[in-house]
C-alpha cells in the first residue's frame, strides 16, 4: 500500500494497519475523537493541564514568595492590582501560595495513585486469576476495607502515624485501593479463560508472567478511568485532613490548611479562606469532568448513563 | 364490512446524526373487523407501522400521513390526551416478550386492574372481579392465584396470557399484536394463538398481526401484507399466498423447508435495491 | 404452570427453607468477618501509635515500676493475639476504654454525642432525597435538555466542593451577613437550662415537650448544616436517580404501560420510579452512611456537638481511645447500614423475595 497517497486521517483509520504502532495510534485517534466531542471533558482536561503547568513553573509564575510576607505593610489586604487574590495574616500573597500549593495537590494525587492503583491491580488480578480460596480470602479482605468509612479511617491512621503530608498520603492510599481490586478482578475474570490466554499458557508461561504481562495491561484502561474519577475525592480528603491540621503542616501552602488558617478572619477578611476553597473546587471539578469524559470515550457502552 | 382503520400514505422517519432514516415510507391499507397479517424481516418497518397507529412512535420520530383514521377519528389531528384515551380502551397492543413487557415489581392482578381503572370508573371489587374473569377468559385455570403472582413467578406462556388479559380487559375494538408468540416455546405458541384467535372472533375485534413468520401469519390471518424496506411490496388474501407474484414474497415462502425436497444449495433471500424504490 | 408447582410439595418447601437459612448464614459470616476486620484495623492502629498508651495514663514522670505495673494490669505484656482477643471481648461489651480528655468511659461520651450526629445526617438525607429524586427524574425524562445539564452541573459541583469550605461560606453569608439563620451550635444558650432532652434528637424532643420556642431555635440552627449535608446527598442521589430512571424508561414494560393508555405522570412515577426505587434504596442508605462520615468535617465547622466534633477534638489531644471508639462506632453503623440496605433491597424487589 502506498502510504504517501493516503491522508493522515485515512492512515489512522485504516482497516488494515501495517504495524502495531499504526493500529494503536488509530485506536487512540478514535478515542480522542469521542473525547474531544465532549466539551465539558475538554474543559476538565485543560484545568488539569493548567494545574500541571502551575506546579512545574511555580517559581516563574508566582509573583511573590509563598513563605515570606511583609508583616508590616501587607497584612490581610483585600484583592487588588498588586495582590490579585489578597494577602493572608502574615502578609503573604495568596495567589503565590495557591500556585505553590498546586505542587502539594499534585503530589498527593500522584502518590496516592501510584501506591493505591498498583496495589489494587495486583490484589485484583491475582485473586481473579488464581480463583479458589486465594480469591475468596483476598476478596473478603477487599470487601472488609470497602465497608469502612474511608475518611474516618484515614483520620485514625494519621492520628496514629502523626500529622504530616506523607502520612496523610499513606492513610489515603491505604483506604483507596479496594475499588481498584474489584475492577481488576472483574476484568481478569472476563479474559482469564479466553483463547489467547490459554495459548500463552500452553507456550509454558508462568502464572506470574501471564498476570503481569498479559492480564494487567488489559485492566489498565478501566483502572485509569476509575482513578481519575477518584482524584477529586482524594483531593477533598487531603484538603479535609489539612483543614483538621492533620495533613500538611504550616507554613506549607496546602490549600486545606490555608482554609483552616483563614477561618479566623472569615467575617472580615473572607478572601483568606475563600480563595483556597475555589482552587480546590476548580481542580476537583476538573478531575470529575475529565474522568466522566474518559469513561464515556473509553467505554462507549456506559456513555448513555 | 365497516372500516375500522384507514391508513393512507403513512410515513415514519427518524432524524439521526448521519441523516434521516425512513422506517415507513408510504404505507396504505384498510382494515375491517378482520385479521390482517403484516410480514417482513427486521427493519422492514412493520413494527413502526403498528406503533404509529398506536401513537407510540418514539418522541424524536416524525410521522406524516394523508389519512390515519380509526373509526372515523382522525388520528393525525387528535391531541395527545385523545390518543391516550384511545390506547388500551379502543386500540390495544400486545408486545413480544412478557419477560420484559410486564412490570416486574407489580403483581399481575394489579397490572390488569390498572388498565381497567384508567379507562372506566369502576370500584375496587368490580375491577377485581372483571380482572379475574379476564384471566379466566385467557384460559388460566387458577385465576385467583395468578392474580397475586409477580411476572417472574410465571412461565412465558402464562405471562403472555396475562399480557393479553391486561390489554383486552377494557374491551378494545382493534388489537395490534407485535410478534406475540416469537419469544415463546413452540409448544405454547399454538396455545396462545388459539386463545388469541377465539377472543378476536368472539369479541369481533380487528386484528393486526405483525410477524416475520409468513406461514404462521397465512394460517392465522385473513389477509397478508408483505413489507420490505418501509414499503408494502404485496398484499393478498392468505388463502392465495401460493399465488404470490412478488419475488421477495416468493423468497420468504421458499425459506421454509419442506420434507422430501432437495435443499441444495440452501436458498438465500434475495434483496434487490429496486424493490426498495 | 406445572402441576408439581401448584401442589408445592414438601421437598420444594424444604429446599426454599434451606436456601433462606444458607443466605442468612452467609449474611452472618459477612457481618462477623467485616466487624472483626474493622476491629483488627483499629487494634493495629492503637498499637502502632507512637504515643505509649501506658505513659498516656500514668504520665511521663511516673517511676518505672508503676509503669510496669500498669502495663501488666492493662495486659500490654501479653502476646498480640491474646491482647486482640481481650480487645474484641471488651469492644463487644461496649468497653472502648476511658477518654483521657473527658475522663469518662468513651462509650458514655459517644452515647451522649451520637444522637446529634444522627439527627444532622437524617435531616441531610431527607433533604437530599426530597430534592435529589425529583431532580434526577426530571433530568432523565428531559434527557439532554437545559434542565438535564443544570442538574448535571449542580451534581458535579456537589462532588467537587470541599464541604468545610462551603460551610464556612454559608455561615458567613446566611448567619453573619444576612442574619437569616442561627450560627454555630445546636441551640441557643438560653434554652440549655430549660430544655430537657428525652431522646437526644432535639427536634423530636422539642415536639414532645411542646416547647415551640426551642423548636424554632433548633430549626434555625440545623437548617444550615442540614442543607449543606443535604446538598451533598442530593448530588449523589440525583445522579444515581437519573441513571436508574434512564435505564427503566428504555424498558419494554414502559411501552406496554403507554399502550395501556396510562398518563405520563403515572408511567414515570408509578412504573419507572417504582422499579428504580429498588436500587435507589441502596443509594440512599449509602448516602446516609456517607453523611455520618462527612459529619467529621461539617461538625467541626458548625461546632455541632456530635460524634464528628468529638473525634476531631480527641484527635487534637491525641486521645486515641476516643478516636478509635468513634471510628468503631461509625464503622459499625456503616456495616449495619450496608446490611439494612441489602435487606430492604430484598423486600422491595419481588424477584429476590422468597415466598
TrEMBL record, chain A:
Q: Which residues cross the membrane?
A: 40-62, 104-130, 151-176, 224-249, 269-291
Family label: Belongs to the binding-protein-dependent transport system permease family. OppBC subfamily.
Q: Where are the annotated coiled coils located?
A: none
Q: Name one GO cellular component term.
A: plasma membrane
Cellular compartment(s): Cell membrane
What's any GO biological process attached to this entry? peptide transport
Keyword Transcription appears in the UniProt entry: no
Superkingdom of origin organism:
Bacteria
Q: Which Gene3D superfamilies match?
A: MetI-like
Q: How does it sit in the membrane?
A: Multi-pass membrane protein
Keyword check for Membrane, yes or no.
Answer: yes
Question: Where does the ABC transmembrane type-1 domain start and stop, copy by copy?
Answer: 102-291
Question: Which UniProt keywords are given for this protein, alphabetically ordered?
Answer: Cell membrane, Membrane, Peptide transport, Protein transport, Transmembrane, Transmembrane helix, Transport
Query: What InterPro entries would the database entry show?
Result: ABC_transport_permease, BP-dependent_transpt_permease, MetI-like, MetI-like_sf, OppC_N
Q: What is this protein called?
A: Peptide/nickel transport system permease protein
Automatic annotation (TrEMBL), chain B:
Gene3D superfamilies per record: P-loop containing nucleotide triphosphate hydrolases
Q: Which residues form the ABC transporter domain?
A: 5-254
Q: Name the SUPFAM superfamilies on file.
A: P-loop containing nucleoside triphosphate hydrolases
The record describes its membrane topology as: Peripheral membrane protein
Q: Name one GO cellular component term.
A: plasma membrane
Q: Which UniProt keywords apply?
A: ATP-binding, Cell membrane, Membrane, Nucleotide-binding, Transport
Pfam families noted in UniProt: ABC_tran
Q: Where in the cell is it found?
A: Cell inner membrane
Supply one GO molecular-function term: ATP binding
Q: Name one GO biological process term.
A: transmembrane transport
Q: Which domain of life is it from?
A: Bacteria
The record's comment on protein family reads: Belongs to the ABC transporter superfamily.
What protein name does the entry list?
A: Peptide/nickel transport system ATP-binding protein
Origin species, per record, is Shinella granuli
Automatic annotation (TrEMBL), chain C:
UniProt KW Glycoprotein keyword: no
Q: Which Pfam family name is an example for this entry?
A: BPD_transp_1_N
Q: Which InterPro entries match?
A: BPD_transp_1_N, MetI-like, MetI-like_sf
Membrane topology field: Multi-pass membrane protein
List the record's Gene Ontology CC terms alphabetically: plasma membrane
Please give the chief subcellular localization of this protein. membrane
Task: Output the superkingdom of the source species.
Answer: Bacteria
Q: Which UniProt keywords apply?
A: Cell membrane, Membrane, Transmembrane, Transmembrane helix, Transport
Transmembrane feature ranges: 21-45, 120-141, 153-176, 218-237, 276-302, 322-345
Record's subcellular location: Cell membrane
Record GO terms (molecular function): dipeptide transmembrane transporter activity
What range(s) does the ABC transmembrane type-1 domain occupy?
A: 114-345
Family, according to the entry, reads as follows: Belongs to the binding-protein-dependent transport system permease family.
- Would you tell me the protein name for this molecule? Peptide/nickel transport system permease protein
Classification from the root reads: Bacteria, Pseudomonadati, Pseudomonadota, Alphaproteobacteria, Hyphomicrobiales
